[in-house]
Amino acid sequence: MLGSFWKQNKRVKYTGLVSLILVALSITGCSVKQPRQVAIASAHPLATQAGFEILQQGGNVYDAAVAVSAALAVVEPSGSGLGGGGFWLLHRESDNLDIMIDGREKAPLLAHKDMFLNTSGEVNKQLSLNGVLAAGIPGMPAGLVHLSEQYGKLSLAENLQPAIRYAEQGFPIDGRHQKLLSFRKNILKQHAETADIFLAQGQIPDKNSLLKQSDLAQTLKQLADKGKAGFYQGIIADKLVNAVQKGGGFWTLEDLLKYRIIERKPVTGHYKGIKITSAALPSSGGIVLLETLNILENIDLNAVDSITRKHLITEAMRRAYHDRALYLGDADFIEVPVERLINKQYAQGLSSTLRTDRTLPSRYLSGQTPEKQGGRNTTHFSIIDNQGNRVAATLSINFPFGAGLVAEGTGVLLNNEMDDFVSAKNSGNGYGLVGGEANAIAPEKRMLSSMTPTFLQDDERIAVLGTPGGSRIISMVLLATLDFAAGHSPESWVKVKRFHHQYIPDQILYEKQGLSAEEITGLRALGHQLKQSYNYGNMQAVQLDKANNSLSAASDHRGEGLASVQQIHE
Ligand code: DON
Fold first, then answer.
1. Entry pTM
2. Separation between Cα atoms, residue 295 and residue 315, nearest integer Å
């Protein structure tokens, strides 16, 4: 009976019932071995299922993370893929290890600072967003291999099996996939092989029609058979480099051969008794999140009305995103004052510049010109078991369907992460983010990211969360963290109505119905510019409640993902 309870595939499931039964059994003196349970939340039901399939075969949470990552690369090709990269944040309970696997893309050896400028020195956005020049050297395959070999129990080939099956047999496409296809249709159409895979005679395929990716299945098999060499050397590497060079891009075989994942120490800090563990550079996520929280720690947000609360959160975001633009980039290439930016006294100084009666326009922080907003892709998943082992992973090819083309014969969509670099001072990227020298393009440098896979921990609870959303990722994780601090559940964090400020453009972007009419009037009176946005983000969150050893999980209702808690049969 319990088995069938766990097998139900509801969007959100709680383990309360099982925990109660266990507590009852232990009170009555029956000795029970704590069953192994795991919570997974991901952006696609088939990816969540792939994780549980591997757990049932004896895998640990890191094996499950490989299976979920690889499955997402197949069933959510708009968001991430073998041609992209990302960050996996891990915690291993046995030795209390916290580590971030940096599988971020890097610039090719022949890349240079001005590669997206035309002869009059203006940025050509077409080049940094669409086609082969937009693509960084992928880190995702190396990340999968490393995660599986260093942390998993099963073989890489076993962990890739569900993804290979999905690619070979196909899967029905959903409404979200269709919507994202229409966003990039015109770019995808320009490349015959890409159009053949993703479009139906140049049009958006019907909902529920089967998407089969036989070349991608072959590429995954090469990776399964040969490990890293299956992608970065040999037949797949040749095909990737040929495709890029044919289109006028800079990749060489040496670029692929030289790609390495890097294990980094995550960024950590505290907010009102909550320990935060989050992404380190080359993602700005952890630093900007901590700096914002450090500023807000000096304020009692519960003691002010909702207009002032949102105003102060906005002002904190403005200051932290300002520092992002000024200082952050790949720390293997430039000096970054990380310790200062996440220092409590530094934040205290910034918080003393916050006023409750008006905004501080961004132009007074420093003069950089406004740019546009955008972006709706990437992916995130969260996993935790009832021992506290966990993975938060945010993976990306940047824009929906990346650079919009598949390298011939590989099924691999190229990313357009080169746009996350600063192409020219004062020129915003696809998300309107500005920056300077710190994030300028250089050979082998990793472009600055906003991806924010995060763990939150207090005396009672451990949370794992993250989301896609470009520059807005950090503010979404911030709002969810404040909701966690208020004692709410994962279901509540993913539902929080979102608003965002990123220093430039100098405006609050807010979801439809994200601010009340009264808040809009009040925030305007304080001097804020406001802009309503479509609903954004696709947060995936899980939690371990330590007191009763129960797990919970939630998948953002804005997406079509699946959050589930299941018992693993040993
Ligand atoms: O690394 C980054 O910050 C971006 N490439 C992430 C892109 C993203 O989340 C797109 N989703 N809206």
1. 0.94
2. 9
